[in-house]
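(Structure overview)
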Amino acid sequence: MITINLASLPLPTSADSEKLNNFGREIKGLHPAHLGTSFEQVKEALYTYGALLFRDVDLTPEEIRDLVKAFDPDSTAYGHGNSKVDQTKTSILHSYLKTIPRVPQVQLIGHGTVRDHEGIPEAVLKHAHHSSFHNTRVSDEDEARGVTRFFRWHMDAALYDLDPPKVTALYGIRVPKGPNQVVRYDDGSEDELEVPLGTTAFVSGKVMFDILPPEMKSIAVRAKAKYAPKPFEWMKDAHAVETGLGVESEGLEKSLDELDWDKEKIKIYPFLWKNPVTGDLHLEVHPCAIMEIYVDPVPAKARREGVLYPDGAHITDLKQVRELCYEMQRPGIAPKLVYPHAWQDKDLILFHNRGVMHSVVGVFGQDQVRVFHQCNLAASDAPDGPNEEDIMKWA
């Protein structure tokens, strides 16, 4: 068997190379649609490094779907389970996705008008702009100078009825060129991050957990997130905080009575998802979709000194839920911990959707056209959480 050729991704000067030295690898000399006997090595590399880059590759929608499916052969449907997600106007997602008709697991995303594309006569694509979702926005003057924001930090998941995809593929078919932009956090920290135009920003869920102080690790290893029913309909009228890491508590969510939902389809997941190859724990909580938190009591033989919620808790106050999540996740999106990918035409990135968080970033001009394909498949099983040994170690 030929050993696959892995190269480190170029980190920006802003990155903490020690923290991110094991994040992401480029695979050279191997076409992602023809992995053959190298697939198991690629799979191990993906779960080990979180993201894999293939440069200058031609891929059909069918090849992208089949590649993603190889990581979870029993998966079949798009991650949000709706082959017409672009027509579901009650969802916050409908504006940004256009389904490829013959391969409904693959979505067309990007910016600008695209014609005669994979069976779609015409699509007017919209790159997600923070003004459509955030509670505040960057001024026109600052935006003209290249100031922007993270749009929404998330993992790809319906978080209702269907389990989170294991792997997501992003394929950059046409990538506009332009000057770098500056992400401004606008949260009082004065944090900023220079990024390539239209980057996709990634952070490691492992690093996000590793850097937590002991009292937060204790909560994380014992906590479970209960997600809202049909969360992308529930949050449609809500506004995000300036960092894109969660939603303001303004009471703008739809009442549960307004949603047509089934109690049996509600999803409750551990805060920490266990890596199937490395055994590492990844902090993976969707900060916009979470509704309640369950915290298990500290195990009988574990220490209790300095531990928060030693007897367990059920947190139902939405503002408190969001504040706790933000306190846990905000350190993990610090500028030095973000990998902002500099897209080139025909780049393919595969990422471990259960191990990283990501965000759309930036703003394009009216005349700039961006064409991407995205694919993820609702998983055939739920994420594994911490085991007994993990709980005893960190609780």
Q: What stands out?
A: The first strand starts at residue 5 and ends at 8. The chain is about 15% helix and 25% strand. The CA atoms of residues 160 and 267 lie 6 Å apart. The mean pLDDT is 95.
